[in-house]
TrEMBL record, chain A:
Protein name: Dynein light chain
Transmembrane stretches, start-end: none
Pfam families the record matches: Dynein_light
GO biological process, one term: microtubule-based process
Automatic annotation (TrEMBL), chain B:
Organism of this sequence: Laodelphax striatellus
Principal location class: cytoplasm
Keywords of the record: Cell projection, Cytoplasm, Cytoskeleton, Dynein, Microtubule, Motor protein, Repeat, WD repeat
InterPro entries: Dynein_IC, WD40/YVTN_repeat-like_dom_sf, WD40_repeat_dom_sf, WD40_rpt
Subcellular localization: Cytoplasm, Cytoskeleton, Cilium axoneme
UniProt-recorded Gene Ontology molecular function terms: dynein heavy chain binding; dynein light chain binding
WD repeats, residue ranges: 553-586
Acidic residues bias: start-end ranges: 143-181
Protein name: Dynein intermediate chain 2, ciliary
Region of interest called Disordered, as start-end residue ranges on this chain: 127-204, 256-284
Amino acid sequence: MAELGDAKKEEESKKIVHTYPLVRKCDMQDEMKSEAMELCVTACEKHAANNEAAARMIKEMMDKKFGPSWHAVVGEGFGFEISYECKSLLYMFFGGNVAICIWKCS
Amino acid sequence: MDKKAGVKPTKLRAMVKHGSVSKIKGDAGDQNDTENEILMRGRNLMIPEDQLELPEKELSEELARVLTTVNHQIPKNLVEFSFRERSFIPSPITPHDVMLLQYVGTALHKESPEALLQLEAEYIEGAEHGPSDAGKAEKKEGEEEGEGEDDEIEGDADGDAEGDGEAEVDADGVDDEDGEEKIETKEDKKGPPQRGGKAKKLTNQFNFCERATLTYNNPFRDQGAQTTPPPQATFCDYINQWIVYDAYQEDYENQQNMKEKEKREKMTTAQPKKEEGTGRKRLDKHSVDPTTYRMFQAAKILERMINQNTYDEIAQDYRYWEDPSDEFREAEGTLLPLWKFSYEKTKKLNVTEICWNPQFYDLFGVTFGSFDFNKQVNEGYLCLFTMKNPSYPEYINSMDSGMMCLDFHPVHPYLVVVGLYDGTVAVFNVQLLTKERQYESDSVSNKHGGIVWQVCWGKDLTDGEMHFYSVSSDGKVYNWVLMQNELAQTLVITLYLDMEQIPGPDGTMVKITGCGTAIAFHPKEPLIFLVGTEEGNIYKCSTAYASIYLFTYEAHHMPVHRIDFNKFAPEIFISCSSDWRVKIWEDGRSDPLFMFDLGCSVGDVKWAPYSSTVFAAVTVDGKCHVFDLNINKYKAVCVQSIVSKKRNKLTRLSFNHKLPIIMLGDNKGSITTVKLSPNLRIKPKPPKKQQIIDERTLEIMKLEKLLALVREPQKITAPVDEESTTS
């Protein structure tokens, strides 16, 4: 029992650690990537309980910054198959449970 | 009203023309007055100054005026005298209307003479084939003329008057005449238009036809270009909480690994990371052909296996064989030769130093160079051998000059410092696959001016920087600190001889320096060290004082080859020299405690790591001498020829710090391993009263007991000295 508890504790402590943005796939330019990541983090932190609002914010901001027709998906579980303009895909995890996929396709 | 006023002047003129002026004039003046009055009435608001003041009665009186188109003032009974007829004849009635302007339009009335003319012309043109018809038609027209005449005139006149109300007045007379003429012409050509069904139907707004032609349109052409769309790609994935979790776990693990690796890297290369390039190159080597690397590893294992099979007997001996004859011999031991290490390229070179790796007891480093001034080589080698593979070195590195010494770092056993014949010192990281030197002294600005005889790592500095000391023939001891990307050099001491200054060239005085040949650091006090010189003196120095010697031992008469501190008693040290002697000293005592003459130049001497009283020395006649002072204070317990006396010389030796074996290097580039027989490593027995004393204390006790014999009566040492010399 004690062991189990320990393991749990360990897991918990690990979970706390994993809140940093983790990029799974990205083919953006470095500058764009860092900006997009920062934006995603801000959006997800601002709308922690509202993925829709977060996605909206990301999309709008990206449109403003990098020209129109961005798409953003924020969620804890989803599947997708998209076509995107090369050099404009960012797929990352954040906060340990949210996946964010943004891409451009006009 | 206006019209009437406008008309009047014409009338006047007409009157004048006709000669009855006066009557009409008066009439006209009256009329004008009344008209003015009427005008005034209409414009009450603007009352002129000279307005007539009328009595109320007159003002209220109504004056009726009727406007007609008939001019009542035109006399109807005008007559003219005709001289031809000699009587008055009534003149024609002047019309009531006046032509002001006549404007001929392009539109023709259908029944106007012009229109008829036109029609006729068209008809004639169109009907050339039937002239008889046309004739008939003319006749008919002629008959009809008379009937329509009067009406026509009246209609015309009316139409004109109505149409030209606003036009100029001047041209009136002419106009009238024109009008008459026109009428006449009209009358003349009245006939033709009536042609019934035969005539062509005239167009009007209800009955017309349009004709148009369509020219060819210019052909249109579309031209366009399409740019290539930005490249697209598809991407799909599936996300779940556990996928996210796993990804984080994996990444975290990677991070940890990276951190660890970085830490390790820092340890290995932080200080020796000379340049970025080195690291990258190394990475490249790792990454470019990992297969080659793995192949290399596999081949290495295979090589070791084969070697193990080949040298199976030796391996067995090395581990298990103990000379059984030792039991029957008192105070005598043997050396069992085991492997012989050599490397093809260094067969002609001398073994200049052997040093065991502090971490792996089967690994040792050897430097190859030349001790002979006349036969210097232009290539020196550093080789690392392992006892697992006697046939080929584990690591080979070479430099342009003979290597004279090496030392493994005690904490980072992959760092090797070497000293070269040309005065250079260099640091290698033998872990790396590259042969590149991690550090090398600059050949221009900082290096020794003579052969570097010994190098020695110091304890790491307080801020973690590694450093080492080197001693050279130029009489200087330098301290080298491994900085980020360079070796920082500091002079520790210059070995000035205790002599008068010698006059140099140009009248300068030159202080003579000794040539350092050996250095040994005190095992307990990191500041204290001993330097042996070519002159035979041994100086006790401190790194804190660069100018004075703490003590001077007039130890030998020839170059000192080695100084070694006892592993158990730090105040005891041993030295050897080309003057055939090996001497044991105690700190602060100017006379040696023991002195042994080995009959020829002694190349190297070392204390055994396992015993406080055992040491070994090698001589140029190819013999290895092992002493155990506890057994015999005067003679070696074992003297054994290792290599052939005529051809080979032994140069260096080194005790393994864990196993009872010694490495002996010779001047033909080969290293012989010998195993010490049991008699050469007798452990002291603890006294019966105190059974639980650790070995170290026992060893110290043993040595103390021995030293007690030689220390007090100084005289005793002298006979020992004599005896050993003679023997």
